[in-house]
Amino acid sequence: MCRVQQELWNQYDIAKYLVENSFKFCTLLCLGSILPTVPVLSNFPVIPFCLLGYAFIQKNYKVYKQQCAVLLATPRARAFLLCGGIAWYLARDLLNLDDVLNGLSSPLDIFQHGYYVQFNGEYWGDNDISVVELDLLLGLYICHTGMQITQVTIGAC
């Protein structure tokens, strides 16, 4: 919940205010009463990894920038702006804030990669990103150090 200026009285102005100020929020679309079965896609993004002793070079940064451009070129990239915080900050340079206000990418995309809830017998959804996609935007690498591997869980948007 947040308090907005009184002159922001329509949904468009409120959503614009939220996205311009890095608030996390959802724009839900009614998807109907039957949840379709969608095949699981097999092309998941993978976090890059480095072997013991690897030294980062300028090319790593160039690859990271290309990776971000690919992530932010998808129709559902608006979800990075909806996350708010650091994801919003990194995505706003390559995305137009109006992309959020233009609505969701497609109902099928939401069922494959989205966030949805059931309310009064109908499904409502929005674009979403995975933890791996957020990690890639943040520039995460898995670097082997020769030490025992410990698992760290990072919460998604």
How do the helices and strands line up, and which of them pair or pack?
Layout: H1 11-20, E1 29-32, E2 49-50, H2 58-71, H3 78-83, H4 85-91, H5 98-101, H6 107-113, E3 114-119, E4 122-127, H7 131-138, E5 142-143
Mean pLDDT: 77
Structural class: alpha+beta
Please outline the major beta sheet: 3 strands, antiparallel
Question: Strand sequence of the main sheet, in spatial order?
Answer: 1-4-3
Q: How many beta-strand segments?
A: 5
Shape label: globular
Strand content: 5-15%
Helix content: 25-40%
Low-confidence stretches at least 5 residues in length (pLDDT < 50)? Answer: 151-157
| Distance between the amino and carboxyl termini | 16 Å
Describe this structure in words.
The protein has 157 residues and is α+β, with helices and mostly antiparallel strands. The protein has one domain. Helix content is 36%, strand content 13%. The protein has seven helices and five strands; from the N terminus they run H-E-E-H-H-H-H-H-E-E-H-E. It has helices spanning 11-20, 58-71, 78-83, 85-91, 98-101, 107-113, 131-138, and strands spanning 29-32, 49-50, 114-119, 122-127, 142-143.
In short:
It contains 7 helices and 5 strands.
Keywords:
about 160 residues; alpha+beta; 3-stranded antiparallel sheet; about 15% strand; globular; disordered C terminus
